[in-house]
Amino acid sequence: MKKKKKRLVVPFRMNIIFFVVFLLFSSLIFRLGIVQIVHGEKYTNEIKRTSDVTVQIPVPRGKIVDRNGNLIVGNKALKAITYTRPTSIKPDEMLEIAEQLAKYIKKDTKEDIKAITERDRKDFWILHHQNKAKSKITKEDEKILKRKKLAEKDYDKEIYHLMLDRITEKELNSFSKNDLEVLAIYREMLSGYPLTPQIIKNKNVTKEEIAIIGENLDVLPGVDITTDWDRYNSYKIDGFAPLASILGKITTAKEGLPSEKAEYYTALGYSRNDRVGKSYLEYQYEDVLRGKKEKVENIMDKSGKVVDSVVVRKGQRGNDLVLSVDMEFQQKVEEIITNKLSHLSQPYLDRTFVTVMNPNTGEILAMAGKLREKNEETGVREYNDFALGNMITSYAMGSAVKGAMVLTGYQTGAITMNNRVIRDEPLVFKDTKSKSSWSTSAFGNIDDLYALKRSSNVYMFKLAMRIGGQQYYIPNGPLSIDKVKAIDTLRYNFAQFGLGVKTGIDLPGEQVGFGGRIPDFAGNVLDFGIGQFDTYTPLQLVQYISTIANGGSRIRPHLVKEIREPSDDIHELGPVAHELGSNVLNKIAAKEEEIDRVKEGLRLVVYDPNGTGKSIRNKQLKIAGKTGTAEALYDGPVPHSPGLMLWNLTFAGYAPYDNPEVALSVVVPWSTTDKMHPNLDVADAVFKAYFDLKKKREKKDTNTINKKINIKKTEKQQNEANDTNSE
């Protein structure tokens, strides 16, 4: 009889274990499903963020050329050594790289060492002497800090600051020359942003340094050799450059974004160490000149180190600015100013301004200013560029503004074409200082033409009286004008010519001069009529005379003529991206015959034998304009007695008078005498220089707008010179 097999019985405990394992596996599968299906995209993106990081590499700025294609500001190529910091690296690891790099390159110039701050030295000392630094913290310090119950991060921060405070002067000065060189490199490495190349050295990089670093890149993680750029002015000679103050400056890589605008720039995609325009043209046209950064995708391993890089988008340098300025003419104007100033040995006369403009388009052809200053090192008085003074300094312009005063008389009805004769006579008012014209004898009954050519003050005084509500002058009687109504009316009308308001030039920081307050005395309203109360800038003066020259349109002056796309050929300009045409801001409310009447008066200033501008010699150029002599309070830099009164000598004019193509203003402030005429001498020479240059070019049949860039020193030559210096 066969025995029955025993039935295998699984113990109850085993069943429980199997059931628990089943539940765990089910839970795991369910969790994996949640991760894969619900959060899969999120985690995939996180993996990508940590393995693929995109950075943007800066590119050179656009060039600045003059109206004829002459390069003014360009980019000089520089060999550069860079360091790209990974997302995670310890300070001591970075220090090891800096120490290794210091064996191969020199970074010990005065500029390098001077850039090292006290805080840099302290941080570096702690990094080098960690045990000594820790010993500066007592147990009592730890107890005090623990009582504060700080978070771990805040606790470590407090400890670190205690270490910093207790580093002695002797310890700070204990660094060797080699230590400082390592620190100069280390601080540059530390100042960069993760995964963004930081310039370690780009000046005087030698071929030997490039070669040895290239051979040792495997032991210098993050270090690379590349090409950087530097801004240069092709007209700069011995530290001086025409128009330098107008062109402006850019920040250095060390400066990066200006702190006050850092948030604005970063929102536009800038990195904090990007170089940007910080003044005038470079600042005004930053969005044009900046270019498109190169986009690079860095592939990193799990440790955060870059293992590969892929260019996603090639960079493109910025667009080029074509200025309306003619640099050859600009240089001639500056030479004229310097020559005239050098012959004037006066203690307070230290500056002269000239702005030349096309009255029909608003194009600035030259903007020159010279300031005579003492060089603190050599003790020699030098003529420095102060072109900026044409728009940021203001002066009483005197009789040069009388053209605006006569047209204001016409516009307000103070005079008409049928009633324009006024008697020039000494004006004696009750309780008011007497006023008269500059001549020793009164002119008698005169019209507007005579008043302009002979520069009658009384004619303008009586116009101001009529505008203020007093129609007739009564000898020894009161000056009973409504000074508020009069000054407001005069300022409003002068503003239509550009006097006392912003001209609208395409530069930041333009000033409007001194004005706006109500005169203390009614007599000051009369002074306003002869340009001796409010002050104006030389730029406003040229806009005013241009408004008369072109028949009554106030045109916005501008320095940039065109914006052009970058070209691959350094000798050619790219296609026009944008052209800046003329912009009429307003038209004066005067009839054509009234404007023509004033223009005739301005012609007589130069061509009448008794005109105040008769000393202008180049009459074949058909020059028209108005002279000005204003007695004004001196507020310049030379030490002086309180209340010193000096003379501002001015001129505003245009040519040819029958078809104006060029207008200018000349301002020579703070002369000790009104018996000399440097204002007329300068104006005469500038007009001649303009027409001589025009004639010379017409003979050569030169095209004014030439697509070729005439580079005095090409980028290639600059690079070759840089290589030679490096050797």
TrEMBL record:
Keyword annotations: Cell membrane, Cell shape, Cell wall biogenesis/degradation, Membrane, Peptidoglycan synthesis, Transmembrane, Transmembrane helix
InterPro entries noted in UniProt: Beta-lactam/transpept, Beta-lactam/transpept-like, PBP_dimer, PBP_dimer_sf, PCN-bd_Tpept
Broad enzyme group: hydrolase
Pfam families: PBP_dimer, Transpeptidase
Region (Disordered): 700-727
Keyword DNA damage in annotation: no
EC number(s) stated in the UniProt entry for this protein: 3.4.16.4
Catalytic activity: Preferential cleavage: (Ac)2-L-Lys-D-Ala-|-D-Ala. Also transpeptidation of peptidyl-alanyl moieties that are N-acyl substituents of D-alanine
Annotated pathway: Cell wall biogenesis; peptidoglycan biosynthesis
Family label: Belongs to the transpeptidase family.
Protein name: serine-type D-Ala-D-Ala carboxypeptidase
Organism of origin: Heyndrickxia vini
Taxon lineage: Bacteria, Bacillati, Bacillota, Bacilli, Bacillales
